[in-house]
Write a structure and sequence with these properties.
With 346 residues, this protein is α/β, with parallel strands linked by helices. It has 2 domains: 3-147 and 317-331, 3-Layer(aba) Sandwich (Rossmann fold); 150-314, Dihydrodipicolinate Reductase, domain 2, CATH 3.30.360.10. The chain is built from 11 helices and 13 strands. The strands form 2 sheets. A 7-stranded mixed beta sheet has the order 8-9-7-10-13-12-11. The structure holds NADPH dihydro-nicotinamide-adenine-dinucleotide phosphate and N-acetyl-L-glutamyl 5-phosphate (X2W). The site of NADPH dihydro-nicotinamide-adenine-dinucleotide phosphate (NDP) has 31 residues, from helix 1 and helix 11.
Length: 346
């Protein structure tokens, strides 16, 4: 059976990546493609790499256009999906709605209001299947909140250590570099080529980045106790990719020799998450265009800390690939359907 999938925000980076993956998915056909300012244009004029869909005409992003599809992927600015999702649900309750934006990720309305400054739209099942128990929550669901790109990287990097009770829940430090596509297509002065090329810079320093509560939520649920992090994002002169370095203190009495085994066991059967062989370190260029995450860890016994570095493509596993992976689980399709791409190199 073929499932029809509509993509809103089809002119953006996340929507474009969703369409690239869906165009190669054996069990879906692409339905409506919608936009905002660019409604009425040919998709090919805005996303020239999507050859198979170039002649599709972008429609307005309304519930009338989106309802009736088996699946709707919302790749819209923050705050735009809550009301629209409710209208779609009214018209077609059976539609699986997948929100690539942040609106439905957080469980705490208070954290949402503090970091996003608007009213909380609600909480949907979190689309990170590799977390313990999450596949069961996603199977058959009609609502999926796709994680943010930094949270996917950071939570996957540290979750095995928290699940195994090896890490202190305080004093967790995460520093991550992202490619510029993470910020979306809308022009921003700090993202001009001349600002970004040839150097790196931090932003959101001091605990203010909105992914902080999302990372804490995922790690706290995994740990079964409150995990507190310090998170600093940086901007790297590349289009795609995230490289996160996450460090946490080993609990007193935790055996450093047991650390690697916790990560090996957690990801042994995961198709998309790879603990690399010892001595090999992740690189963003090895995961570009693929839904795969690479990671490596070390125990710094002198500092008493575990250090994990993880790399993924922010638009694939970090957004659209994660969305398709969770969609597959919700629809009962093979989890890897449409996600068989290897990385692109050099
Ligand atoms: N980029 C990334 O790495 C990641 C992005 N996300 C999330 O995905 C969502 C989309 O991000 P991204 O693709 O980067 O953003 P872009 O700025 O690249 O694209 C935004 C899209 O939304 C459309 N749009 C803008 N305003 C409205 C509106 N008021 N109503 C309906 N549609 C609108 C735009 O259409 P038009 O061109 O016609 O104006 C465009 O298609 C965001 O919520 C983002 O947080 C999540 C994880 C990672
Ligand atoms: C480089 C860059 O600017 N990245 C974005 C995160 C992209 C992402 O995952 O975002 P959402 O939570 O918006 O879905 C940022 O830091 O705001």
């Amino acid at each position: 059976m073929t499932h029809t999938v509509a993509v809103s925000g089809a002119t953006g980076y996340a929507g474009g990546e969703a369409l690239r993956l869906l165009a190669g998915h054996p069990d879906v056909s692409v339905g409506a493609v919608t936009a905002h300012a660019n409604a009425g244009e040919r998709l090919g004029a805005l996303q020239p790499h999507l050859h198979a869909l170039a002649d599709r005409v972008l429609q307005d992003t309304t519930a009338d256009v989106l309802a009736g599809h088996d699946v709707v992927i919302l790749a819209l600015p923050h705050g735009a999906s809550g009301a629209l999702a409710a209208q779609i649900a009214e018209r077609s309750p059976e539609t699986l709605v997948i929100d690539a934006g942040a609106d439905h990720r957080l469980e705490s309305a208070e954290a949402w209001e503090r970091f996003y400054g608007s009213e909380h739209a609600g909480t949907w099942p979190y689309g990170l299947p590799e977390l313990p128990g999450q596949r069961e929550r996603l199977a058959g669901t009609r609502r999926i909140a796709v994680p943010g790109c930094y949270p996917t990287t950071s939570i996957l990097a540290l979750a095995p250590g928290f699940a195994a009770g090896l890490l202190e829940p305080q004093d967790v430090v995460i520093v991550a570099a992202s490619g510029t596509s993470g910020a979306g297509k809308a022009a921003k002065p700090h993202l001009l080529g001349s600002e970004v090329m040839g150097g790196m810079s931090p932003y959101g320093v001091g605990g203010g980045h909105r992914h902080t509560p999302e990372i804490e939520q995922g790690l706290s649920q995994t740990a079964g106790e409150r995990v507190q992090i310090s998170f600093t994002p940086t901007l790297a002169p590349m289009a795609r990719g995230i490289l996160a370095t996450a460090t946490a203190r080993l609990r007193p009495g935790a055996d450093p020799a047991a650390v690697r085994g916790a990560w090996e066991r957690a990801y042994a059967d995961e198709r998309f998450v790879h603990l690399l062989p010892e001595g090999q370190w992740p690189a963003t260029k090895s995961v570009l265009g693929s839904n795969h995450v690479q990671m490596q860890l070390a125990v710094d016994e002198r500092a008493g800390r575990v250090i994990v570095t993880a790399a993924l493509d922010n638009l694939t596993k970090g957004t659209a690939g994660g969305a398709v992976q969770s969609m597959n689980i919700a629809l009962g399709l093979p989890e890897q359907a449409g996600l068989e791409q290897q990385g692109v190199a050099p």
